[in-house]
Amino acid sequence: MSRTIRRMASSSSPQRTLFQRLGDEALYRWLRGFAAIVGALPSRWAYPVVNTLGSFLYAVDRRGRRVGRQNLIAIFGDALTARERRAILVGSFRNSVMSVGLLLHIAPMTRERYLRWVDVPPEVEERLRATAAASNGFVIVSGHIGNWELLLGLPTVFEGFPEMVFLTEGITAVALDRLLAHLRGSGGGVSALRHGGARTLNSHVRRGGVAALLADRNVRSSEGGVWAPFLGLQASTTPLPAWLAVRNGVHLLPILCLPQADGRYRIWVGPNLAEGVDTTDRDAAILEITTRISRVLESAIRAQPEIWNWTLKRFKSRPDRELGPYPPYSLWNW
Question: Burial, 325: exposed, middle or buried (Cβ in 10 Å; 0-12, 13-18, 19+)?
Answer without folding.
Answer: middle
